[in-house]
Amino acid sequence: MLEFWRRLSVALLLCLAWGGMAHAQDAAVSAQASAPPARLQVVASFSILADMVRVVGGDDIHLDVLVGPMRDAHTFEPSPRDVRTLGAAQVLVVNGLGFEAWLPRLLDAAGFKGQTIAASRGVTPRHLSEEHAAQADAEEHDHAHEAGAVDPHAWQDLANGVQYVQNIAQGLAQADPAHGSAYFARADAYIQQLRETDAHWREQLAAVPRDHRVLATSHDAFGYFGAAYGVRILSLVGISSEAEPSARAMASLLNQVRAQHVSAVFLEHGSGSQALRQLAAEAGVTLGGSLYADTLDKPGHEASTYLGMFRWNTQQLLAAWQRNPQAQ
After folding, report:
1. pTM of the predicted protein model
2. If DSSP states are collapsed to H, E and C, what string results for the chain?
3. 73-103 pLDDT per residue, tens
4. What is the pLDDT of residue 36?
């Protein structure tokens, strides 16, 4: 009898153990089934592009950015952390048009095997003129400006911004078909905003007499903006963030400003401002507000988004031109 009860106890213990294991397995399967799917791991090359990706991707992606707000994408040097971030990504969104000169080395180091989206695909590129290229070379500016080189700053035209958003949505949907309809829906709403903003500022800029629509700054980054919105661009490329211009260079720049009847000189975030301030004072022209060319502002500021950046830049131009009596 004792042997019987001993065997029964062992059998009951085995049943309880198997039951516990089965329950644990069922719970694990249930938890796995109810857990939200992992978000698409996306990396954007710089802050302006990252904002577009953020809007289109929404909560369906996890987004990292290599060159964050208020950082210079031209002089960017990847860190070991950037290598790890890119190595773990499924999708990389880049501007293209030669903007990310540092990218091939980073791709090599990271061993990136994911999908690359070139946001500028389909954009009609602008090429630098011989005059701008020669001017840049003469002053040893910190960017490569050989004649005929492609200008990568295509996002400064909101119509190109629409093309960027379409490319981003198509790329994300290809990488993550399960959320494709969500990507396209967000892109459509965003494109509507871009087109409305484009029409609004086009009308505001057209109200300023054409002769007074001159954007004089230190960086040849607003060519697409000028072509799209009827603004003449005077790029004072001799003034770089690396060094102050010589007296001879300053005299040449002063002659340019006077000869082209410039009414305002605009600073750019990230470039040296002392020489531009001196130039504006000596030429007797208005010193306009700071513009954003290659970066967004930090979160919480007006220019911390692509649309906010465009609004900020255009408002700075209009405010400076309207302060000048000749522009009334």
Report:
1. 0.83
2. CHHHHHHHHHHHHHHHHHHHHHHHHHHHHHHHHHCCCCCEEEEEEEHHHHHHHHHHHHHHEEEEEEECCCCCCCCCCCCHHHHHHHHCCCEEEECCCCCCCCHHHHHHHHCCCCEEEECCCCCCCEECCHHHHHHHHHCCCCCCCCCCCEECCHHHCHHHHHHHHHHHHHHHHHHCHHHHHHHHHHHHHHHHHHHHHHHHHHHHHHCCCHHHCEEEECCCCCHHHHHHHCCEEEECCCCCCCCCCCHHHHHHHHHHHHHCCCCEEEEECCCCCHHHHHHHHHHCCEEEEEECCCCCCCCCCHHHCHHHHHHHHHHHHHHHHHHCHHHC
3. 988 999 999 999 999 999 999 999 999 999 9
4. 54
